[in-house]
Design a protein that fits this description.
Blueprint lengths: L4 H15 L5 H8 L3 H13 L4 E6 L2 E6 L14 H9 L13 H13 L3 H7 L18 H16 L1 E9 L4 E15 L2 E8 L4 E6 L3 E10 L23 E7 L4 H5 L8 E4 L5 E7 L3 H8 L5 E5 L1 H16 L4
Antiparallel strand pairs: 1-2, 3-4, 3-7, 4-5, 5-6, 8-10, 8-11, 9-10
Helix pairs in contact: 2-3
């Protein structure tokens, strides 16, 4: 069983318990597609973790429920003014969730948090963005259709249900239907992406949610692979899955200080050269995200290796130069 399968299922159980006044083990088993024995283990695990879940017998039938005020102990946490202020301000860093199914939960949480502050405190904190601000990425689609699509995709992913999508490909400039097994939704670089197994090609692919034109979710379930990466796009500086290559780039002394102060990837290693230039080494995919980043430096960056990347950058620069030739 995948390491994250239990967590996803138990999260679904918590949400079911929260949204339903009471529910039986048989109902939970049917909704999650596992045995009642597995559900009992999940409930025990959640209780052991401290969630206030309890059972009660009504008319000879046993029901399970989640205490309405599951975190009432937060009333006694005695948050400091600084802690409350930091939490209140952090809402600017959560705007990427604004169009997802978590929108109402996030808004409700911050409304309750704001209720713990006096009007004067809120007025003061609302001025903080004037001196400290986070520039968010463009918001996800706020249309009703867009929110419904995301909600249905999330549900299919959590419930491990097979689906079919109609997807518009930018590379082929056409729409195509895919039978998929949705593994994960990832928010990255201002967009929401779906990682799914495509049965036709027997491989995992990444789809931009904004380009999914139609979605139908079936009742048929699947089992996610155990080898699904814990970190999405682990070997890319962008949104791409692939094998990493050892990349070496030399940056001109004029741009070296700016490159040095940014960690682009976990594998990045910087080496200062005697002439003031900077040698950057990374183990990442040779994808468009990497090449466009290198090209953004123009003549101030030169690829040292691998040779395939050298040839690709040279070809891109030659083509760009041709655009300005009379």
């Amino acid at each position: 069983m995948p390491r994250n399968a239990e967590v996803i299922r138990q999260w679904s159980i918590l949400r079911d318990l929260e949204s339903s006044r009471r529910v039986t083990i048989d109902e939970l088993a049917e909704r999650t597609g596992v045995t009642t024995r597995t559900i009992r283990r999940d409930l025990e695990a959640l209780q052991s973790a401290g969630f206030p879940i309890f059972d009660e017998q009504i008319d000879g039938k046993r029901y399970w429920t989640l205490e309405a005020r599951a975190f009432k102990r937060l009333d006694d946490t005695s948050f400091t003014v600084a802690e409350l202020s930091a939490l209140y301000f952090s809402r600017t860093l959560l705007e990427c969730l604004a169009a997802t199914p978590f929108q109402k939960d996030v808004e409700s949480a911050f409304e309750k948090l704001a209720g713990a502050l006096t009007p004067s405190m809120r007025q003061f904190l609302d001025r903080l963005p004037l001196v400290f601000q986070a520039k968010g990425s463009p918001a996800l689609s706020r249309s009703v259709k867009g929110r419904e699509m995301i909600s249905r995709l999330l549900d299919a992913t959590l419930q491990h249900r097979r689906a079919r999508i109609t997807y518009y490909s930018l590379s082929s400039a056409r729409e195509k239907d895919y039978a998929i097994e949705p593994y994960r939704l990832v928010y990255s670089q201002g967009g929401l992406y779906l990682i799914a197994f495509v049965a036709e090609y027997k491989t995992t692919r990444t789809f931009s949610v904004e380009r999914i034109r139609a979605l139908s979710v079936s009742e048929e379930r699947f089992t996610p692979p155990a080898e699904l990466p814990e970190v999405p796009f682990e070997h890319s500086i962008g949104v791409h899955e692939g094998q990493p290559e050892h990349i070496e780039i030399r940056f001109d002394p004029r741009i070296a200080p700016y490159v040095r102060e940014r960690q682009l990837h976990a594998s990045q290693k910087n080496t200062d050269n005697p002439d003031g230039s900077l040698q950057v080494e990374m183990d990442v995919c040779n994808d468009w995200a990497l090449r466009s980043w290198i090209l953004s430096f123009g003549p101030l960056a030169r690829v040292v290796s691998p040779s395939t990347l050298v040839d690709q950058i040279r070809a891109e620069l030659t083509n760009a130069r041709g655009k300005y030739t009379d």
